[in-house]
Amino acid sequence: MTIQWFPGHMAKARRQVVEKLKLIDIVYELVDARIPQSSRNPMIDDIIANKKRILILNKKDMADESITKEWIQYYKEQGIASIAIDSQTGSGLKQIVQLSKELLEKEREKMKAKGVKPRAIRALIVGIPNVGKSTLINRLAGRNIAKTGDRPGITKQQSWIKTGKELELLDTPGILWPKFEDEEVGLKLAATGAIKDEILNLQDVAAYAMRYLIKHYPDRLMDRYQIDNLSNENEIVDLFDHIGKKRGCLSAGGLIDYDKTAEVFIRDVRTLKLGKISFDRPNE
Ligand SMILES: Nc1nc2c(ncn2[C@@H]2O[C@H](COP(=O)(O)OP(=O)(O)OP(=O)(O)O)[C@@H](O)[C@H]2O)c(=O)[nH]1
Description:
Layout: H1 7-21, E1 26-32, H2 44-48, E2 52-58, H3 65-77, E3 81-84, H4 94-103, H5 105-113, E4 121-127, H6 133-141, E5 160-163, E6 167-170, E7 174-175, H7 183-191, H8 202-216, H9 218-225, H10 236-246, H11 258-270
Helix pairs in contact: 7-8, 8-9, 8-11, 10-11
GO molecular function, one term: GTPase activity
Pfam family, one: MMR_HSR1
Protein name: Ribosome biogenesis GTPase A
């Protein structure tokens, strides 16, 4: 389902998250590990205010491992606890409870001192569309629970999902909007498949991804499309021609079909044919 993020919807989405914050101890802010900055909500710090938070870099299986490590370090320096996980296989999930306990230790110690037995930690997953919120909830619950999160305008009864003895999750994640105002962010969201292909011109998205690969992963481009010398193909049009020819993207008259080439190239990127690519890098 595509959400049209009008200002009214943003305000409503924000209100829904703020309401839920009253019920929970900790926020799990879910982002896409390939674009940890570009897949964050622009107002997230303001929205969650003083609540404890873990920044969860999901889909780590698709991101460049060394860059993910740099991100974790970067966030540590910013005072933000972060971990990388793969919700599809469950890799990294154990750290979530462990880290939550660490972050909430003081509060829990205080409760113990008052003679109150600490209850399970209560958490809310928030994030922009498509970062894997439902997949994570289902994984933590050990069954298929989460279907859709809060759509702006739709109010749903809250209920808790128990995941083991130590953690309870709100069953509907908070859906927040991405940073659309920045064109590059839009291109990154499109390149990773986070937004619908109809929203941006696919040739623009492909050209952006090609430039990014020339800069950061030239060998992979050369290997995949048998390019001998990338410096001669720096012109994006030449690269389109080369890839179009190699991948058989020709129109009736034998000319390169650029739309088809863009589609094939983007599919290669999204299906890891060019390896694991991180489109956001710290300090860039
Ligand atoms: N490779 C990989 N794919 C994942 C992972 N987590 C989720 N996905 C896929 O990402 C897509 C989006 O996942 P969802 O769980 O529907 O994302 P969501 O955040 O709930 O999306 P909305 O309901 O649109 O807000 C699905 O195709 C999932 O299978 C992961 O860790 N690795």
